[in-house]
Amino acid sequence: MTQPLRLGIAGLGTVGMGVLRIIRQQSALLEARVGRPIVISAVSARSRDKDRGIPLTSYGWEDDPVALARREDVDVFVELMGGENGAAKTATEAALAAGKDVVTANKAMLAVHGQTLAEQAEAAGRVIRYEAAVAGGIPVIKTLVEGLAGNGITRVMGVMNGSCNYILTRMEDAGKSYQEIFAEAEGLGYLEADPQLDVGGIDAAHKLAILSSIAFGTKVDFNGIQLEGIERISIDDIRAAADMGYKIKLLGVAQATGRGLEQRMQPCLVPESSPLGQLDGGTNMVVIEGDAVGQIVLRGPGAGEGPTASAVMADVCDIARGWRGPVFGQAASALVTPTPAFSQAPAPYYLRMALVDKPGALAKIATLLGEAGVSIYRMRQYEHSDVSAPVLIVTHKTSRAALDQALEAMEGTGVLAGQPVALRIEEL
Amino acid sequence: MTQPLRLGIAGLGTVGMGVLRIIRQQSALLEARVGRPIVISAVSARSRDKDRGIPLTSYGWEDDPVALARREDVDVFVELMGGENGAAKTATEAALAAGKDVVTANKAMLAVHGQTLAEQAEAAGRVIRYEAAVAGGIPVIKTLVEGLAGNGITRVMGVMNGSCNYILTRMEDAGKSYQEIFAEAEGLGYLEADPQLDVGGIDAAHKLAILSSIAFGTKVDFNGIQLEGIERISIDDIRAAADMGYKIKLLGVAQATGRGLEQRMQPCLVPESSPLGQLDGGTNMVVIEGDAVGQIVLRGPGAGEGPTASAVMADVCDIARGWRGPVFGQAASALVTPTPAFSQAPAPYYLRMALVDKPGALAKIATLLGEAGVSIYRMRQYEHSDVSAPVLIVTHKTSRAALDQALEAMEGTGVLAGQPVALRIEEL
């Protein structure tokens, strides 16, 4: 075990360069901790000539990440290119086929192809590690797979997309619209190249799908997630929530129920005094509940060079120590196909709708809610423009089915100006 | 690796029975996770006949934990007896000498004898794992040793004694004196048999010493900790702190400085809106700062059957997976002897003192503080009894040395009725 562990790093963006930096600066500390040197044999990226602030001349170079994955002097293929398919997946498969272990930060690839890749890895006796794929620098994969291995996991929750949390926090602080803050975040480089991955909740849902698989021993099931982004959250919603003592967060929840696996990623109202309510900016939080441990809360930076590289290095160090195990915490062949289940647990809901400015519109809404069995806890009508009047409603606890029935009934009546917004209130 | 991992459990109190319960109830899940059965070969406790709610007839029995530690059918000796010396230490040494791995929840033993035991274990090629020794169910050892292995750790902080936090929280909620709530906590069984271990800060300091060693690559140095308990915190202090927007917490801080290793465990004022300030009751929180990751915060239950057994099982599972490593994250032989350093970083301080009811007493105090270079930010004198007047002072940032100089100068003046209380204010 005193042979060096030799890495091939594919992708030299922010995270890749962070990993390079740690290995260069902390080589003695790393060797003291894992008992052998960790070295970089070769790297691969789009451009060889780009000035990255660190000379790459001491490392081998491959234009093609697949060639890097197959190099004889590489023990671990470190995939930091990203993307659900394409080069990342091809090179990962090539690495496994060539008998290499894989460390990746690629949540999209794992959320969609995780089961197939896990089967391939385990058949080849290789490991895939992906601490950096979920919640940045927070060691949440390690906590679930190892730290809480003695627990039946009952629920996993979290705020796991820093960009969405930044947008929602900034909207409130600056009193600006979603569109304005979205543009600001994009300008600052806080959003993915396809911003829909962030604001549509897809990136966070990728992470939730991975956590669910580990927590509940199920095949990763991204398509089974009830998914809603933050694009329709208005500054009015944020202000109304604040008035009532709530914050709006893009919250992921996964739990095993009698009917199947419930996975949802959607904007929710959470009490502003709760740990989730106090989470500002790009910080992530994951809450894990186990039958023995009760509740564990992990908080930390969800993105960025240092935090993500720290998570990649945790995986590299475990492999260097010779610690091996199945990809999702149990053998891929033992994972069961989950039955997706939507939440039927009643919850209070927040509703915002714009009513056409006609007599009886509000009465109609109230009647339809009542007929569906949804009872109103608070209602507030705001000053209105010439054509429509905004109305905010907080319901008593109700099933989502009853609420959807009422909303559907409203559609045909012509009293709504635009689509209503309905957000679950999570009393944590 | 499909051979069962065979445990010998010494100590069948709350934690021991919790471990038994998990292994009985979750055997299939555990085997799926670690790839082999985890079984209990034999147990040892003070009384064989006590009714523990679970029959022990299917396990071997040893009156003597040393005999348990040496049994041929035991691979891992699980030490849950507690105590710095005595049977726990003797049996742990016997287990290592007999070629067994050890899992323990014994913070006192590790804080005092950790280096010797680590040397013995590593010489014998055995591991000692102790997730349950620090912060109950929170996987903080795993986070430090493994999850943040790519980081130079810069600071570790935490509230790690649930009993102290319970007492301080209850004093404020109930508006009762330290003595009253102490008696209440003792009646509820929340305190150690020797309550000084809790309220004197010793238990929390044991935990801090262990974290320091891992974080900074130093030999565990319990005696190097600047230690102060909560016994002198009065309800007046708690109320005055609350008036100013602070909570009082028994806070441990460890950091490497240019002068050496700073380790302190002492009651501090922390902002009530900070994560530490919001920590109520028996919940623990550990904050870890690393040069790559930034800040990670871990929160969870610090004690109790389920949480502590969960931590023990994490260690057992890692050993079952064949994952082995040095006791304190680096080879015991590589750990350096730390130079204890007291904090010289200036901080604001909270002072409470009772002045004799004589003209000029307050002026004398203010003068002596000024002469030592301690400047006063806020001062408040309360209604007083016939003989003494309570005075609360918040200083501007000052060194502890300057403050101690002023306090020393006050002693000879005869203006103080009783010993002053000085608490550091940590702006986190």
Automatic annotation (TrEMBL), chains A, B:
Transmembrane segments: none annotated. SUPFAM superfamilies: ACT-like, Glyceraldehyde-3-phosphate dehydrogenase-like, C-terminal domain, NAD(P)-binding Rossmann-fold domains. The keyword Iron-sulfur does not apply. It comes from the Bacteria. Pfam families: ACT, Homoserine_dh, NAD_binding_3. The keyword Oxidoreductase applies. This is Homoserine dehydrogenase. It comes from Sulfitobacter aestuarii.
